[in-house]
Amino acid sequence: HRDQETELFDLLAVWLRDLLLSSDGRVSEHRLINFDAARPLRQLAARCREPQRSIVEALNVLSRVRMARHYNGNFEICIHYLLLQMRKELQHA
To answer: For residue 15, what are the CA distances in angstroms to 9, 40, 57?
Structure first.
């Protein structure tokens, strides 16, 4: 199951990376890994209060959760924490 967790965390990191790039209107959608989702990503980034700060903090939360799982933190608690913190950071203005 650790492989699946790693894959999940990697997918979230890529999505957050694309969201961060989308928050900068000067970045071409061709730079996105999920270029097919460029429009929804830009819309979500535009609705965040402070997009770049919020997205970077969401990436930091993801990093902390990865570390906790590396040290055998409880999976359910880690996922709940991750989702709650991401919701807090990426909430709309």
So the answer is: 10, 12, 14
**One digit per residue, pLDDT tens: the chain, 93 residues?**
889 999 999 999 999 999 999 999 899 999 999 999 999 999 999 998 899 999 999 999 999 999 999 999 999 999 999 999 999 988 864
Domain that holds residue 37: 2-89
Indicate the number of domains in the chain: 1
Residue 26 DSSP symbol: T
Ordered alpha helix ranges (H), 23-74: 38-47, 51-70
pTM for this entry: 0.90
